[in-house]
Write a sequence for this structure.
C-alpha cells in the first residue's frame, strides 16, 4: 500500500492561517467610512450596500469582511443585541500604540479605553459603528513573556 504526501502529513503539525473574519453590519457604507477613512485600512472590495472587504496591516495583513444584516432572516444577524456585538472582539496589533492613538484621535475616533497597561499587554479599545469592540495592542499578541 502506498502513502500519499498528504496522508504522510497526518500526525504532523499542519500550519493554518487566519486570513480574516466577517462582521454583519447595519450599513456597509458607514462601515467603509469608519474602517477605511477613520482607521486608515485599505478598502479592497466595495460592493456596497451589500458587502465590502477591508485589509488591515498592508498587503500581507488580514481582512475584515463587512456584510449587511440579513433582515429577511428573523433569527439572523439583525437579531444580535448591542451587548452581543460588543462581546465580539477584533484584536489588532501595532508596534506604536501611542502614536496610533494620537493619529486615530485626530481623525475623530472615540476610545472607551485609551492606551493602558494590563498584566499581559498594553492596549486600547473602541467600538465600531455597529458596536463591535476593536482592540489595538502593542507588539505581537502572546509574545510579551507573560505566562
Amino acid at each position: 500500500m502506498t502513502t500519499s504526501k498528504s496522508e504522510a502529513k497526518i500526525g504532523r503539525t499542519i500550519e493554518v492561517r487566519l486570513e480574516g473574519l466577517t462582521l454583519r453590519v447595519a450599513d456597509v457604507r458607514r462601515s467603509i467610512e469608519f474602517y477605511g477613512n477613520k482607521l486608515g485600512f485599505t478598502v479592497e472590495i466595495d460592493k456596497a450596500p451589500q458587502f465590502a472587504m477591508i485589509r488591515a496591516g498592508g498587503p500581507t495583513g488580514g481582512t475584515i469582511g463587512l456584510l449587511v444584516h440579513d433582515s429577511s432572516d428573523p433569527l439572523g444577524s439583525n437579531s444580535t443585541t448591542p451587548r452581543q456585538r460588543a462581546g465580539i472582539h477584533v484584536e489588532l496589533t501595532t508596534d506604536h500604540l501611542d502614536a496610533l492613538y494620537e493619529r486615530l484621535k485626530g481623525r475623530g475616533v472615540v476610545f472607551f479605553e485609551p492606551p493602558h497597561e494590563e498584566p499581559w499587554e498594553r492596549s486600547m479599545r473602541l467600538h465600531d459603528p455597529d458596536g463591535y469592540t476593536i482592540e489595538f495592542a502593542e507588539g505581537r499578541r502572546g509574545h510579551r513573556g507573560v505566562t
Notes: The longest strand covers residues 62-68. DSSP finds four helices and eight strands in the chain. The beta strands are 20-25, 42-47, 51-56, 62-68, 89-94, 111-117, 122-127, 133-138.
